[in-house]
Amino acid sequence: MLKINSAEFINKIEEIKTGGNDSGVNLTQNRLLDLNIELPEIIEQIQIVQEIESRLSVADKLAETIQTNLLKSESLRQSILKQAFEGKLLTEAELEACRKEADWEPAEKLLERIKGDRKINK
């Protein structure tokens, strides 16, 4: 018996095809039917199918988990933005500590600086 991926099988195909190019023009059905191709035992075939199905199932669950987490992250992003615009991200004590930092500036000043940077970059 021949295994399809073996060098012996490839050589056998080369022997039975005729013609002037590699198209295998005369590689007829009868010639192919004369080849004995080795297949795994049915039990091994079933095991292979089960392994593939198991891995596909894991991949499907992983894709579902990723999609769920993407939706959660978008919801969290929206919640953070809402809290930021409402001024509820930090406590008063945390805000006071930030204001004491050397690089702190009010939002209005930051926005003006960003607009100025954009004009310069254009």
TrEMBL record:
GO terms for molecular function: DNA binding. Keywords: DNA-binding, Restriction system. InterPro entries: Restrct_endonuc_typeI_TRD_sf, Type-I_RE_S_subunit. One of its GO terms (biological process) is DNA restriction-modification system. The keyword Glycoprotein does not apply. This is Type I restriction enzyme, S subunit. The lineage of its organism: Bacteria, Pseudomonadati, Bacteroidota, Cytophagia, Cytophagales.
